[in-house]
Write a structure and sequence with these properties.
Blueprint lengths: L4 E9 L5 E10 L4 E5 L6 H8 L12 E4 L2 E5 L2 E2 L3 H5 L2 E4 L11 H6 L8 H6 L4 H13 L15 H15 L3 E5 L7 H18 L2 E6 L2 H7 L2 E6 L2 E7 L5 H8 L36 H5 L1
Parallel strand pairs: 3-9, 3-10, 7-8, 8-9
Antiparallel strand pairs: 1-2, 1-4, 4-5, 5-6, 10-11
C-alpha cells in the first residue's frame, strides 16, 4: 500500500551553515495522527515546511518527498505540479495566518480558492455551496456564531479553530499543524487538540502535529517521531516514551519538553522530575482528581 507521506534521504543546510535536517526517512500512512516532538531548533517546523513544499531540501542529494506517490520535491527542486498537490495539504500555523480585518467566514473560505474562479476569490463572491461548506466547518470546530466577526476580534483559541476550519474547507487529505497550541492557554490547547483528533478520526485525514509538550503528544497521538538536532532519534508508539528513554535522547533538554508543575495537564503521563527533586512514583493527578 502506498503511504500517504513518504520522505527519503532528506537533508537541509541553511545559508548560515546550520545543518537543520539530517537524512530524514519517514513514512506515514493514511489516517495516522503523528506527533513531531523535539526541543527548540530540533527541526520540527523545517520538516513540516518541506512536506508542504514551502522549503526545498539540499540540491545534489537523492532526497524525495511524496504524498500519495506524487512528488512534492525531488533532489532540491519543487515538482512542477506542486500547485495541485498543495491543495491536498492543509497547514495550520502557530500564529494562525488569518487576515485580521476580514470576517471569519471569508478567512475560512480562502480554503476553497484552489477550486473556484479567480474572480470569485478576488471579489469575494463565493458560490453558495462553498459558503455552506464553510459554515459547516465553523460549526464542526465550535465557532459558527463567530462567522460574521472580524478575525481580529477572536481569541487565540478561536482563531486557531478558524484556521483548522479553513483546512476542512480546503478538503485536505494531510493536515500539518506547526506548534498549533504554543501560544494558547491550557483550555484552548485542549480544545484545539481535540478538534484535530476528531477530524483525524471522522475524516480519516492524516494529521502531523509538531509539539513541545510530550504529555500532549502521548495523550492525542498514537505515534511519535522525536527529532534532535535535525535527526530522527525515535519513531514509534507514544506509549513507549518512558522517562528514561526521553532523558537518554535529550539529556538536559528534556526539561523543555515535559510539564514541570503539579497543575500541568498530564493525565496518565509519567513525568520526569526536575534536577534535584525526588523521582515521582505516580503521574500528576488528573484534573478531575485535583478538583475533588
Amino acid at each position: 500500500m502506498t503511504p500517504r507521506l513518504s520522505i527519503r534521504q532528506l537533508d537541509k543546510h541553511f545559508a548560515n551553515g546550520r545543518h537543520a535536517l539530517r537524512d530524514i526517512n519517514l513514512q506515514v500512512q493514511a489516517g495516522e495522527m503523528v506527533a513531531l516532538i523535539g526541543a527548540s531548533g530540533s527541526g520540527k517546523s523545517t520538516l513540516l515546511r518541506h512536506v508542504a513544499g514551502l522549503v526545498v531540501g539540499d540540491s545534489g542529494s537523492e532526497s524525495l518527498i511524496e504524498i500519495d506517490g506524487r512528488p512534492v520535491q525531488r533532489r532540491g527542486r519543487i515538482d512542477r505540479d506542486i500547485r495541485q498537490l498543495r491543495a491536498q495539504v492543509g497547514f495550520v500555523f502557530q500564529q494562525f495566518n488569518l487576515v485580521a480585518r476580514l470576517p471569519v467566514l471569508v478567512n475560512v473560505l480562502v480554503g476553497s480558492l484552489h477550486r473556484i474562479s479567480w474572480w470569485r476569490g478576488w471579489t469575494r463572491v463565493f458560490p453558495k455551496a462553498e459558503r455552506a461548506l464553510a459554515l459547516d466547518a465553523l460549526a464542526r470546530v465550535g465557532i459558527a456564531d463567530c462567522q460574521a466577526q472580524r478575525a481580529s476580534t477572536l481569541s487565540g483559541g478561536q482563531q486557531q479553530r478558524a484556521a483548522i476550519a479553513r483546512t476542512l474547507v480546503q478538503g485536505a487529505n494531510v493536515v500539518l499543524a506547526d506548534e498549533p497550541i504554543a501560544s494558547l492557554d491550557p483550555e484552548s490547547s485542549r480544545n484545539v487538540m481535540e478538534i484535530l483528533a476528531r477530524i483525524n478520526r471522522e475524516d480519516q485525514c492524516t494529521v502531523i502535529v509538531s509539539l513541545h509538550q510530550v504529555d500532549i503528544a502521548i495523550r492525542y497521538c498514537p505515534r511519535v517521531v522525536a527529532l534532535h538536532q535535525g535527526q530522527v532519534v525515535y519513531d514509534g508508539p507514544s506509549s513507549e516514551l518512558t522517562p528514561a528513554l526521553l532523558r537518554e535522547l535529550y539529556g538536559v533538554q528534556v526539561e523543555e519538553l515535559l510539564p514541570t508543575r503539579p497543575d500541568a495537564e498530564a493525565d496518565n503521563v509519567h513525568v520526569l522530575p526536575l534536577a534535584g527533586t525526588p523521582p515521582l512514583s505516580t503521574p500528576w493527578p488528573s484534573q478531575a482528581a485535583r478538583a475533588a
